[in-house]
Amino acid sequence: MSQSKQRIRLGAIVALTVGALTISTVVAPSAMAKPKNTVVVAIAGDINNFDPHTNQLIIYAYGVKFLVFSSLVKYDVEMNIQPDLATYSVNSDATVFTFKINPKAVFQDGKPVTAAAVISSLKRAAGTTKSIFTGRFKDVKSYASPAKGTVVITLKGPDAAFLASLTEISIVAPSNFGEVGSNPVGSGPYKFVSWQANKQIRFVRFNKYFGTPGGSKKIIERPMPDEQVALNALYSGDVDVIAGVSAATVKQLDASRAKVIRPKTSNSMSFVEFNSSGKLSDVRVRQALAYALDKASIKAITYGDGGSSTWSPLPESSWAYSRQNGYPYDLAKAKALLVAAGVSDLTFDLEIPAGYPEAESLARVWQQSLAEIGVTMNPHVTEISVWIDLYINRKYAVTWNVFNVPADPNGFFDIIMGAHFADDYKNQKAMDLVTKAKSLGKNAARAKVYAQLQKIMVDELPVMMIQSIPVASLTGKNVVGYRINPLGWALFSQAKISK
User: Fold this and answer.
1) For the chain, the helix, strand and coil percentages under 3-state DSSP, each to the nearest 5
2) Mean pLDDT confidence for 9-36
3) What is the Cα–Cα distance from 214 to 206, expressed in whole angstroms?
4) What is the rounded (10 degree) CA torsion for 373, 376, 378, 379?
5) Residues 203-206: contacts with CB within 8 Å, 24+ apart?
6) For residue 335, what are the CA distances in angstroms to 328, 343, 369, 397, 463?
7) Using CA atoms, how far apart are residues 375 and 181, in angstroms rounded to an integer?
8) pLDDT score, position 16
9) Are 376 and 346 in contact, with CB atoms under 8 Å apart?
10) Helices (H), 105-168
11) Contact between residue 173 and residue 165 where contact means Cβ atoms under 8 Å apart
12) What is the DSSP letter of 130?
């Protein structure tokens, strides 16, 4: 499998890689008693790959990765880069990155986190055959440890996005390289205990963690793809947190029995990806499909008027956001473009991962409008494991997706667009702009380049943005310390049950 086929990142799906998330059978809440000093979290599906270098499902990121593993640096809840395993410094042209490792950091196998261990893990992320991060390290010139506890990474050229990219690179204990997929060992606040397929994942607080201790002694995650089942379990006290919920579930919440937790803003973007081949290779056809997208109705019906309709692939909160006029809902223009392209009787499937009712809802709205211009769109809902196979192997015509755009806008163009640039959308100008944006030192200069990229994305539509998603979690009234960030990451390492 080529590297271009391995990149994927889903935000809610990711509840949007390569480790498959399977939709589980529903576990009756009463079947498992809740232990004391334990936070029980309902997640949207099961996780069966625990390797942080090959699995970038968002549900895995917050459900396992940020509990078990540490990175050199991390995002705080406001999306600012902070030290994690190490303090850091960067030279003036962003070519030399120096990290000083916290001397208290210890892996969960009892061994210290050394410079050699960090470098070994970084090289694994860069070079493992199935790693989705290989591209992040292609410009690394060298790794060095000039002093005990110090790691120096030197790049071949400037890369203003490199530090932000390291927030996603977990440091795995070298002794664990061979078994990390099934029994992960890191240096994070919680230690992995066990996994029962489609039933639960268990963690226990790691008492030698170098940072703030975990809020609760134990964390149990239970796959509950049916939000109504999860909500009933929350009301009964069988679960304490529902990591991610739709606008419809939030709307029906009984506020006397549970509470809603939201971030200040949402970087979670709902969109459609085109495999720009066949009839869809004509940009006029893709534009026609965009003119037939009734975003106002989708916002009202699917997202309960939450979030913000947009055409730009970057969230409005981004320092690089550039407003794009896009394609107002206009069926006459849509028809005219199809006629101009000489396309009639267009039929395609819209791939949707199971467990995402909002995707099915917006598909019905779009389907109705498309029918009015003679286009047949068939929503095709599959289990996430099947959907991922279709996605990474490019076996789709059109797919819905959701991506949580990180603080540095390069994340979208690297992860989502990287696969398209290497496969169905070979736009050298856009690729050169992505490289140029990373090479510039000032955000103001980079924003001008990203403005050009956003215009290209909207004009040519390799992907079609729909809107930002209103991100929310639900917790019991007695849960404290739980937070959620703009990426939709459920941050429950500090969650606990108040007395």
Assistant:
1) 30, 20, 45
2) 41
3) 8
4) -10
5) 203/67, 203/68, 206/108
6) 14, 10, 11, 20, 20
7) 43
8) 35
9) yes
10) 115-127, 162-165
11) no
12) T
pLDDT digit string, tens, across residues 428-473: 999 999 999 999 988 999 999 999 999 999 999 999 999 999 989 9
Put the strands of the sheet holding 347-353 in their side by side order. 376-382, 347-353, 398-404, 268-274, 463-468
Residue 311 Cα distances to 18, 211, 290, 318, 456, angstroms: 27, 40, 10, 14, 11
Instruction: Read off the tokens for 372.
Output: 């009015």
Q: Which helix (H) or strand (E) holds 444?
A: helix 443-460
Is 10 a residue whose pLDDT tops 70? no
- Beta-ladder partners of 222: 42
* CB contact at 8 A, 56 and 18: yes
In angstroms, the CA 55 to CA 45 distance is 14
Residues 6+ apart with CB under 8 A from 139: 155, 156, 157, 159, 162
**86-90 and 81-83 as β-strands: parallel, antiparallel, unpaired?**
unpaired
Which pLDDT score is estimated for 129? 60
Per the listing, tokens 């390492």 go with: 493
Terminal Cα-to-Cα distance of the chain (whole angstroms): 51
Amino acid found at 312: S
Distance CA 187, CA 226 (A): 33
How far apart CA 241 and CA 443 sit, in angstroms, is: 37
Q: Which residues does 179 contact at the CB level (< 8 Å), separation at least 6?
A: none
* Half-sphere exposure at residue 310, Cβ-oriented, CA atoms within 13 angstroms: 25
Beta bridge partners of 334: none
Q: In whole angstroms, give the CA distance from residue 429 to residue 413.
A: 13
Measured CA to CA, the distance from residue 57 to residue 383 in angstroms comes to 14
* The amino acid at 241: V
Helix (H) or strand (E) holding 202: strand 200-205
Count the residues in the chain: 499
Half-sphere exposure of 79 (CA within 13 A, CB side): 20
Cross-strand bridge partners of residue 403: 269
Tens of pLDDT, residue by residue over 210-235, are 999 999 999 999 999 889 999 999 99
| Token output for 483 | 């937070």
Which phi-psi region, left, alpha or beta, contains residue 219 (left: φ > 0; alpha: ψ -120 to 50)? beta
- Helices within 237-282 (DSSP H only): 247-251
CA–CA separation, 295 vs 286, rounded Å? 16
Report which of 428, 463, 422 is spatially closest to residue 313, judged by C-alpha positions: 463
- pLDDT number for residue 3: 35
DSSP 487: T
* Among candidate residues 346, 396, 408, the one with its CA nearest the CA of residue 374: 346
Q: Phi, psi (5° rounding) for residue 247? A: -60, -35
